[in-house]
Amino acid sequence: MTLLDQILKYNKDFVASKAYEQYSTSKTPSKKAVLLTCMDTRLQDLSTKALGFTNGDLKVVKNAGATISHPYGSTMRSLLVGIYALGAEEIIIMGHKDCGMGNIDVDAVMKTMEQRGVDQKTFDILEHSGIDVPNFLKGFDDVYENVEKNIQMIYSHPLFDKKVPVHGLVIDPHTGALDLVHDGYGKNSI
């Protein structure tokens, strides 16, 4: 049975048993916040539970490294929509220790791409089109600096309401312990 078959079978039972009822909530976040965090599997539930949130409390945006890679990309758009269309009044940027994007081997990733069918001609075309693939895939050296960099990108965005607090945290993916990187209320930041 494929993964998709498993998903569809489970879903049929999930709907038939009305298991969805316990997750019923509104589309606006009750705690009026948006969380940007990493897609790391260790954070699937931990990223909200360790912060005391439950279903419906906040909007969650996940990507590789909890990183805003472009000021007009989908991550920044999601944060802006959260604020202006979905009632969020605060943003939390939460990186994590031992993040794969903190030490990603770009050459190894590109080699795997080649092994899976992306040929050198494609890389050459992208390069000649002005796309620096290694830089596009590159992560960061320090998770704390990455959180700060994301916060600065948000506050410097021309469409962002500067009165919205943006907090920065780093979570331990093993214990859930948090380090404060930036207090969006203007209090003690690292």
Automatic annotation (TrEMBL):
Keyword Metal-binding among record annotations: yes
Documented EC number(s): 4.2.1.1
Keyword Aminoacyl-tRNA synthetase: no
InterPro entries, per database record: Carbonic_anhydrase (IPR001765), Carbonic_anhydrase_sf (IPR036874)
Family under the similarity heading: Belongs to the beta-class carbonic anhydrase family.
PANTHER family: CARBON DISULFIDE HYDROLASE, CARBONIC ANHYDRASE
Protein name (record): carbonic anhydrase
Species whose genome carries this gene: Staphylococcus coagulans
